[in-house]
Task: inverse folding
């Protein structure tokens, strides 16, 4: 089986596309990057400490007090900037993983709320028909609620509750 002339994978971004679609895989993938960056950060912190000790301790004959210290500043500042950027990268990776998960949760909530809104709209547009209640004021039948709203005849006035 020769792979010459043919790409090994049809689409080199297919694996990343699958990872982007699954929030758990996305978080796991970013956690791998985070481990690498944190390891790099730890090694650079050791390098920074050792470079600081070496650069500040390197004295030239005729140096006045503090000149070696001032010469070491550019080296220390460059590593400080790199470490600051690495801390920003780790924070960004963690934030991205959390936001990816939050995105999926929000999509589920939007689907649910839209479904509920559609149901409410359907109920509003097509209300269920309720059976018409029988007229309580039929002849010969006394209503249990004989209030003022119910039409009565003058012959039933004695059975009516007074105010």
Result:
């Amino acid at each position: 089986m020769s792979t010459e002339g043919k790409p090994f994978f049809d689409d080199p971004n297919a694996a990343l596309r699958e990872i982007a679609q699954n929030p758990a895989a996305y978080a796991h993938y970013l956690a791998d990057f985070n481990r690498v960056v944190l390891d790099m950060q730890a090694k650079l912190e050791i390098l920074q400490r050792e470079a600081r000790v070496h650069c500040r301790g390197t004295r030239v004959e005729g140096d006045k007090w503090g000149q070696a210290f001032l010469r070491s500043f550019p080296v220390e500042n460059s590593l400080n900037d790199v470490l600051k950027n690495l801390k920003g990268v780790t924070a960004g990776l963690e934030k991205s993983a959390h936001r990816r998960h939050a995105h999926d949760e929000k999509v589920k909530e939007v689907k649910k709320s839209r479904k509920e809104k559609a149901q409410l709209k359907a109920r509003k547009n097509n209300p269920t028909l309720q059976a018409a209640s029988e007229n309580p004021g039929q002849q010969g039948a006394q209503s249990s609620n004989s209030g003022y709203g119910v039409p009565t005849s003058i012959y039933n006035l004695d059975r009516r509750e007074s105010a």
